[in-house]
């Protein structure tokens, strides 16, 4: 059984709006008062990856966060010249190396709760440095792990 802070119905609702209803591109979550997880930012469906990164880092270089992102990319199939648009949902644990050890431990222990509750996530990413969340690196991870 997962330890950590339980996920609120608000977070589950927002996840459903992203995954099933396609109402938002992303959501960023934070732990509030070591007792509950709250939605901090929502990205409109038209938002780009750079906007996501700005919102993820908005709280400061030493603040941990969770994020769910519905990533769209073009996939080319071997032996063809055509591509098609694909989407893959990823869940991210952002624990910058400058964050306090207590925060890192709290966010890490609760990450398992999000992974369990957010059914439909195609990839989980844990990141500590800005290089870890650069678009090229994330896209490479998502495309490398595709199921088709």
Automatic annotation (TrEMBL):
Q: Which Gene3D superfamilies match?
A: Severin (3.40.20.10)
Under what name is this protein listed? Answer: Cofilin/actin-depolymerizing factor homolog
Question: From which domain of life does this come?
Answer: Eukaryota
MF terms per GO, please?
actin binding
Name all ADF-H domain ranges.
2-143
| Keyword Metal-binding on entry | no
What does the UniProt keyword field contain?
Actin-binding
SUPFAM superfamilies annotated for this entry? Actin depolymerizing proteins
Give an example GO cellular component term for this record.
actin cytoskeleton
């Amino acid at each position: 059984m997962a330890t950590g802070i339980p996920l609120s119905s608000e977070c589950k609702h927002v996840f459903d709006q992203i995954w099933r209803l396609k109402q938002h591109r992303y959501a960023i979550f934070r732990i509030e008062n070591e007792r509950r997880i709250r939605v901090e930012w929502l990205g409109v469906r038209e938002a780009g990856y750079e906007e996501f990164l700005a919102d993820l880092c908005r709280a400061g270089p030493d603040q941990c966060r969770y994020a769910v992102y519905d990533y769209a990319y073009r996939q080319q199939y071997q032996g063809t010249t055509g591509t098609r648009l694909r989407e893959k949902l990823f869940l991210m644990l952002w624990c910058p190396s400058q964050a306090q050890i207590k925060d890192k431990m709290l966010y890490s222990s609760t990450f398992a709760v999000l992974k369990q509750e957010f059914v439909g996530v195609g990839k989980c990413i844990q990141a500590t440095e800005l290089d870890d969340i650069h678009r090229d690196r994330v896209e490479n991870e998502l495309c490398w792990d595709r199921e088709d």
